[in-house]
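Assemble and predict.
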Amino acid sequence: MPEGHSIRRLALAFSEWFVGHACDTSSPQGRFALGAARLNGMTMVDAQSVGKHLFLEFGSGDRAGAETTRAPLWLHVHLGLYGSWRFYGSPGTSVTPSIGAPRLPDVLASDSDMHEDAGGDAFEMVRLASEVGPRSNEGIRLSEDFGIDNGHWSPPPPRGAVRLRIVTETVAADLTGPTQCEVLDAAGVEVVLGRLGPDPLDDESPAERLRSEFVGRVRGSRRPVGELVMDQSVVAGVGNIYRAEGLFRGGISPFRRGNNVSEKRLRSLWDDFVVLLDDGVRRGNIYTVIPDWHSAEIVVEDDEAEKWFVYKRDGKPCLVCGTPVRTRVMQGRNLFWCPSCQR
DNA sequence: AACTTATGACTAA
DNA sequence: TAGTCCTAAGTTG
């Protein structure tokens, strides 16, 4: 799950449920004890995502007794391949169960629940999720889990290796398995941001500036475009699924060198990344086989609606031309492509 | 119980 | 390119 769309959903979740609230922070696992102690008692004042990076800003609380002004601090989290956040809410509070690594029990539970809500049809489930509105957490699955401690709410004991737990009076978040989890000052945040290229989910910068920056960075390199779109300094937030699917939808061979892909195709590829990531934020899932993709007839081999054109479809017929989808490791990750559709 | 896999990214060679 | 780190679930024996 954790490509750019998931991290944006996390930022939205924290904005909705934690920002404006004093936070108790701890490290049940112990590996982030010092960092958690630095943030403890501060108020979360902002939540942002850039690419696959999450930044939670903490400022001085308005708690009684907190009279000394503390300089703002940022919690910087990168989930890596299998990090995830799990959320809990007090009775009556609506929070999403978890966001991050796939196949957590809560994720499976929420999937099957959505299934029922949508009448047991997988495609319907996705359509419903996409209708909740742009870049919003409205309508996502809700869960309640809690313990009662001395009359007031508290989250249940941590499950697994919880690096960081953030608790407010009504909600809690547990972080497990991040590849990065650190406390930064403003200068530290700038260092991280300085390494990142344009983010398709960036809705504050002018679209044309982002697009031309992406095109310029790709065209300025002789590396294969399949490597370039996984490079976070070329485009921030694209991961292995968006790489495979974006290049397929653009008809671009992942082996073509960046400087050898036309400006026109790269501009379209950028625009498609924007569509795809934006859609991912709304669905909470990557789903690239959508009927309005383009005019080509989409052949579906069985009754089950396909989620992806090529990702993890090694050896299966291409949904557009029937040629077997191929796979090969590129950038240390499994790359999937259609040798016929992508040139 | 051991092994494999994962939507990431770094370092050493 | 190979090895490393973070974790949990599924598969195999």
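The two ends of chain A are 28 Å apart (CA to CA).
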